[in-house]
Design brief:
The complex is a heterodimer. Chain A is mostly beta strands. Chain A has strands at residues 4-6, 11-14, 19-25, 32-38, 45-50, 54-58, 61-66, 71-76, 85-92, 100-102, 106-111. Chain A has no helices and 11 strands. Chain B has strands at residues 4-7, 10-13, 19-25, 31-38, 42-49, 56-57, 64-68, 74-78, 87-94, 103-104, 108-112. In chain B, the strands form 2 sheets. In chain B, strands 2, 4, 5, 6, 9, 10 and 11 form a 7-stranded mixed sheet that branches. The chains are: A mainly beta, B mainly beta. The A-B interface holds A 8, 32, 34, 36, 42-46, 49, 51, 88, 90, 92, 97-100, 102-105 and B 31, 35, 40-43, 45, 48, 50, 58, 90, 94-107.
Chain lengths: 112, 113
């Protein structure tokens, strides 16, 4: 089992819809959780971080964390074609140190 | 602010050649990392440096060496390139605890023929 798992997709949603991206992780001692957006041919860009159970909202993005179930999700409301990208989940799996493990990413396409 | 700067952006090597990828950050971060990204494999950690003067192996260190030259700079060296090292390489940096995530460089696309 990989430390961080994501559904690779591709996920397609119509413009204006809600896109839901999910990520599960294996280590219960994880501290920090991040979502990165990566456009084709570009480097990953941090869009959300979450550290405690519950929801965290930033504009059209909402990150949700459930440590008991070991999953973190990202909701994108009012999806736009510019949201089309690969979304990477990153987890700090260790209580000490600062190594992150990345999921393989979910490819999202927003259809105009 | 430049953030994390990687050079070169593209490189083609012949099998057996050596090269060094350069990375510099201007965010006063303690920790720096080298990742490779391959289709279907995601980002895999090659080496990291938690702080100046220290380096440690990541998930896929074989065939690579690193040098943390100072707080700003962290280089990755391929001593004898192999086709299996064809990949996109990303340098990243963070504060020591990683609380605020990583900042990535723009990447180096390396092809070994």
């Amino acid at each position: 089992q990989k430390e961080v798992e994501q559904n690779s997709g591709p996920l397609s949603v119509p413009e204006g819809a809600i896109a839901s991206l999910n990520c599960t992780y294996s280590d219960r001692v994880s501290q920090s959780f991040f979502w990165y957006r990566q456009y084709s041919g570009k480097s990953p860009e941090l869009i959300m971080s979450i550290y405690s159970n519950g929801d965290k909202e930033d504009g059209r993005f909402t990150a949700q964390l459930n440590k008991a179930s070991q999953y973190v999700s990202l909701l994108i409301r009012d999806s736009q074609p510019s949201d089309s990208a690969t979304y990477l989940c990153a987890v700090n799996l260790r209580n000490t140190g600062n190594q992150f493990y990345f999921g393989t990413g979910t490819s999202l396409t927003v259809i105009p | 602010n430049a953030g994390v700067t990687q050079t070169p952006k593209f490189q083609v090597l012949k099998t057996g050649q050596s090269m060094t990828l350069q990375c510099a950050q201007d965010m006063n971060h303690n920790s720096m990392y080298w990742y490779r990204q391959d289709p279907g494999m995601g980002l895999r950690l090659i080496y990291y440096s938690a702080s100046e003067g220290t380096t440690d192996k990541g998930e896929v260190p074989n065939g690579y060496n690193v040098s943390r030259l100072n707080k700003r700079e962290f280089s990755l060296r391929l001593e004898s390139a192999a086709p299996s090292q064809t990949s996109v390489y990303f340098c990243a940096s963070s504060n020591y605890e990683g609380d605020y995530g990583y900042t990535f460089g723009s990447g180096t696309r390396l092809t070994v023929v």
